[in-house]
Design brief:
Blueprint: E1 2-6, E2 14-18, E3 28-37, H1 40-46, E4 62-70, E5 82-85, E6 88-89, E7 103-104, E8 116-120, E9 124-126, H2 133-137, H3 140-153, E10 161-164, H4 170-181, E11 185-190, H5 193-201, E12 206-209, H6 215-223, E13 226-231, H7 238-243, E14 245-253, H8 266-271, E15 275-278, H9 284-297, E16 303-308, H10 312-321, E17 327-331
Parallel strand pairs: 10-11, 10-13, 11-12, 13-14, 14-15, 16-17
Antiparallel strand pairs: 1-2, 3-4, 3-8, 3-17, 4-5, 5-9, 6-7
Length: 333
C-alpha cells in the first residue's frame, strides 16, 4: 500500500513508498483511510526533533475511514462502519493523567498517512454523520487536546470570558469552537490579521495582534480580564497572561513552544487564587465525550486545505512555515 514514511536519508525527511502491514491481531481492525491530517508532531518527526523516531514508520496521527477487515475477536457489526481514530494509546485507568506507557499513533507505531491503518478496536468511534471524511480526519488529536483543555481542565461555562492564544493551529481552533459551543465569550490572539479575521467569522468577540507591544493592555481594557486562558506558548508570555486573569481565573497550557518562563509572579498567583494547569491529549473518556460533543453541536473543523497524498510534502512545508489557518488535510482515497 502507498504510505508517507519517515526517511531521514531523504533531504525532504519523508518518502512516499510501498509498505506492507503485519497480520491483523484478534482485537484489531483494518481501516481504509479516506483522509488524514497533519499535526506539529509529524513535522517535528520529519525534522528529527521528536524522541525515539525510526525510519520507515508511517507518519500521521489523525485519520478517518471505513472498517474493511476485523480481527477474530471483533464484532461483525464494525465491518463497513465509517469511523474516526483515537490517536491516544495506553492512556491507562486514571482520568487525571496518562500512564507511563502512553503513546501517540504515528510514531513509534505506523500511523494514518497511508491507504490503510490497523488499530485496536478500542481506538475507533463512529464518525459523526454531519462530518465529511476530510472534516472527520481533522478532528482526533487536536480535538481531543482542546476538549480536555477547555472542557475537562478549564470547565468552561456559559458567560465565561475565554482567551485562546495562537489562533490558527488545530488545537487553538478547536478550543475556540468548543468554548463558543459552551456559550463563552471568546477572544483570540495571533500575529496575523487574516487569522484573527477567520476567528471573527466563526463567532469570536475580538482578536489581538500579539506582535503589538500594547496588546495586553488593549485586551484588559476591552474585557476587564479573562476567566480562562488556553495557551501553548508559555516562555516570556506567561507573566503577561497571568496579569490578564481575573481573580479565581485559570491558565490552561498544552505546550511550551517558547520554552520555560523566565519568572513566575508567585504573589499574584496566590493572592488572586489563580490556577495554572498543564494538560496534554486526553483519556479514552475524553475522546468519547469530545466526539459526542462535536456531534451534538454540529461542530465542523476549520480546514486550511486538502491535498492528495502524492502532494503531502507540500502540506508539511506549509506547516513548517506556520502559514495555515486550520487543519492541513490529506485525501488518501
Amino acid at each position: 500500500m502507498l504510505a508517507a514514511v519517515l526517511d531521514q536519508n531523504n533531504p525532504s525527511g519523508i518518502s512516499i513508498t510501498d509498505v506492507s502491514l503485519p497480520d491483523l491481531l484478534p482485537y484489531e481492525v483494518k481501516i481504509k483511510v479516506k483522509a488524514a491530517a497533519l499535526n506539529h508532531r509529524d513535522e517535528w518527526c520529519r525534522q528529527g526533533r521528536y524522541p525515539n523516531i525510526t525510519n520507515g514508520i508511517i507518519l500521521g496521527s489523525d485519520g478517518a475511514g471505513i472498517v474493511e477487515e476485523i480481527g477474530s475477536k471483533v464484532s461483525q457489526e464494525w465491518l463497513g462502519k465509517e469511523v474516526i481514530i483515537n490517536a491516544a494509546n495506553n492512556w491507562g485507568d486514571d482520568q487525571k493523567a496518562q500512564s507511563k506507557d502512553f503513546q501517540i499513533l504515528g510514531m513509534p507505531k505506523h500511523g494514518t498517512l497511508a491507504e490503510y491503518v490497523q488499530v485496536e478496536i478500542s481506538r475507533i468511534c463512529e464518525k459523526p454523520g454531519h462530518l465529511s471524511f476530510e472534516e472527520a480526519a481533522a478532528l482526533p488529536l487536536g480535538g481531543l487536546t482542546a476538549y480536555r483543555a477547555a472542557c475537562y481542565q478549564a470547565k468552561v461555562e456559559k458567560g465565561d470570558k475565554v482567551l485562546v492564544t495562537g489562533f490558527g493551529g488545530g488545537v487553538a481552533q478547536f478550543a475556540v469552537q468548543f468554548a463558543l459551543a459552551k456559550g463563552a465569550e471568546v477572544y483570540v490572539n495571533s500575529s496575523k490579521q487574516e487569522k484573527i479575521q477567520k476567528a471573527l467569522e466563526i463567532g469570536v468577540k475580538a482578536g489581538f495582534n500579539y506582535k503589538e507591544p500594547s496588546w495586553e493592555e488593549e485586551a484588559l481594557a476591552q474585557t476587564g480580564g479573562f476567566d480562562v486562558i488556553i495557551d501553548s506558548a508559555m516562555g516570556e508570555t506567561l507573566p503577561g497572561l497571568i496579569k490578564l486573569l481575573v481573580p479565581g481565573g485559570k491558565l490552561i497550557f498544552y505546550g511550551a513552544t517558547l520554552g520555560n518562563p523566565p519568572m513566575l509572579d508567585a504573589r499574584r498567583i496566590f493572592w488572586n487564587q489563580l490556577t495554572i494547569q498543564g494538560t496534554t491529549m486526553g483519556s479514552d473518556q475524553d475522546f468519547r465525550d469530545m466526539v459526542a460533543f462535536v456531534g451534538k453541536n454540529k461542530i465542523k473543523p476549520v480546514i486550511d486545505s486538502v491535498r492528495p497524498i502524492a502532494k503531502v510534502l507540500e502540506a508539511f512545508e506549509v506547516m513548517a512555515q506556520g502559514g495555515q489557518t486550520g487543519k492541513l488535510v490529506v485525501k488518501v482515497s
